[in-house]
């Protein structure tokens, strides 16, 4: 993994969102969101239920079309592009529901995910051995020893790592992860934190997460959404000390913000 591009100073901009508005039946799910994410950032996106986090990810990935605003990725406008074109530009996401094929092995799942980048002729030709990108993804997610086991036998945590590996196999520049540690044990959360830190060395990662303890340990920059707007942005210390953030979280669950 390369450390290049991690020199101090402002990171090169990768994602630039301006004036984003999403309206569902007259309800503004996003109401003028501006967000800039630099290359190599591990950005956390938090906010109470209904704040607009998933909607924001849906707009970036082309699933939801905004009523107004712009989403530029490496200078390229994404609004109006189809989902699969956005994937090909280098944006991968996980969903809250699993996309793993249980009857295929771990390595077959990764291979399938990688295959969409391969030219058709190499798909038709029988290939031997494991692709470099697949082997690397397998190692990064720490599932090399389980490579030939069916994905159906994986634990919840291992399955989440496989999904992240499937994204890596598609060689994205930007990964969008929706609640990657939901339902995980403490040990699995720690492994996931280390995995995300490793991945962020040569990718940009945006994580939607509710787990405040996880956020405090692994986030660098945090953006807090509330009622479709950016409420606060900064590093973990700034954001958790901000009275507006405490108020929003105290309104929902006093323990989370005060802990
Ligand atoms: N397809 C839809 N049609 C109508 N309303 C929607 C739709 N999708 C989302 N909403 C509404 O938009 C608001 C933002 O939802 P969103 O799922 O983006 O919030 P969130 O921050 O991801 O919340 P959570 O933490 O609960 O996942 C909510 O009030 C939700 O009910």
Automatic annotation (TrEMBL):
GO cellular component: plasma membrane
Molecular function terms, GO-annotated: ATP binding; ATP hydrolysis activity
ABC transporter domain segment(s): 15-252
Keywords noted in UniProt: ATP-binding, Nucleotide-binding, Transport
Taxon lineage: Bacteria, Bacillati, Actinomycetota, Actinomycetes, Streptosporangiales
Gene3D superfamilies membership: P-loop containing nucleotide triphosphate hydrolases (3.40.50.300)
Domain of life: Bacteria
Record-linked InterPro entries: AAA+_ATPase (IPR003593), ABC_AA/LPS_Transport (IPR051120), ABC_transporter-like_ATP-bd (IPR003439), ABC_transptr_urea_ATP-bd_UrtD (IPR017781), BCA_ABC_TP_C (IPR032823), P-loop_NTPase (IPR027417)
Name of the molecule in the record: Urea ABC transporter, ATP-binding protein UrtD
């Amino acid at each position: 993994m390369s450390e290049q591009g991690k020199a101090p100073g402002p990171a090169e901009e990768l994602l630039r969102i301006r004036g984003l508005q999403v309206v569902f039946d007259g309800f503004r799910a996003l109401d003028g969101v501006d967000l800039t994410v630099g290359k190599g950032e591990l950005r956390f996106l938090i906010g109470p239920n209904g704040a607009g986090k998933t909607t924001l990810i849906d707009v970036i990935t082309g699933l939801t079309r905004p009523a107004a605003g712009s989403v530029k990725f490496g200078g390229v406008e994404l609004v109006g592009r189809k989902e699969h074109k956005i994937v090909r530009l280098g944006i991968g996401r996980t969903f809250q529901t699993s996309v793993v094929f249980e009857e295929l092995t771990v390595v077959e799942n990764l291979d399938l995910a990688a295959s969409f980048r391969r030219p058709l002729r190499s798909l038709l030709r029988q290939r031997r051995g494991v692709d470099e990108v697949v082997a690397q993804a397998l190692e990064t997610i720490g599932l090399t020893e389980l490579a030939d086991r069916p994905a159906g036998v994986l634990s919840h945590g291992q399955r989440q790592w496989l999904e992240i590996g499937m994204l890596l196999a598609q060689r994205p520049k930007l990964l969008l992860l929706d609640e990657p540690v939901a339902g995980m044990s403490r040990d699995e959360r720690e492994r996931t934190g280390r995995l995300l830190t490793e991945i962020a060395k040569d990718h940009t990662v945006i994580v939607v997460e509710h787990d405040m303890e996880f956020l405090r340990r692994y986030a660098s920059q945090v953006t807090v959404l509330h009622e479709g707007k950016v409420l606060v942005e900064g590093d973990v210390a700034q954001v958790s000390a901000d009275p507006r953030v405490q108020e929003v979280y105290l309104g929902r669950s006093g323990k989370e913000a005060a802990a």
